[in-house]
Design a protein that fits this description.
By secondary structure, the protein is an all-alpha fold. Helix content is 61%, strand content 0%.
Length: 179
Amino acid sequence: MASMGGMFAGQQPSGAHPVGGPGGPNQPGFPGVAASTPGSHTLVDELEAAFEACFASLVSQDYVNGTDQEEIRTGVDQCIQKFLDVARQTECFFLQKRLQLSVQKPEQVVKEDVSELRNELQRKELLVQKHLSKLHHWQQVLEDVSVQHRKPSDLPPPGPLAFLEQASASLPPAPLKPN
């Protein structure tokens, strides 16, 4: 990426902040980050390189053909540790920028919070609608099942003789003939 001033174009490199570091006078700079010169790498470049090194260490022919498992494990652990260290530095950079923004433009932070809350509310409304849809579906399924399990006298019997069967059911029973 182009010089990101530590992260973004148009900003000073991470180690070239005015007296005292990124937060202003008497505030510490980024721990563990060397001063960047125009040809040096930024935190993003370091993070990308560390990430690539993690994969390279896992697929390297030296490790595949190597027989010393402890050496392989140590190499992979070192690559992962380097990646985690640079990731922490990157996170620290963004947290410091967020802090600067909250001090310089508190209304921007409030706008972001309101926007996040609106998005969360919209997401939850969609979730409620989804659950209501499922609820209506299962209510319909239950209603259909209860209709199928009603007593046979509640429903007309199926078949061509349904009318005769229904009419004969309402007649009194025929008297029995004595033998």
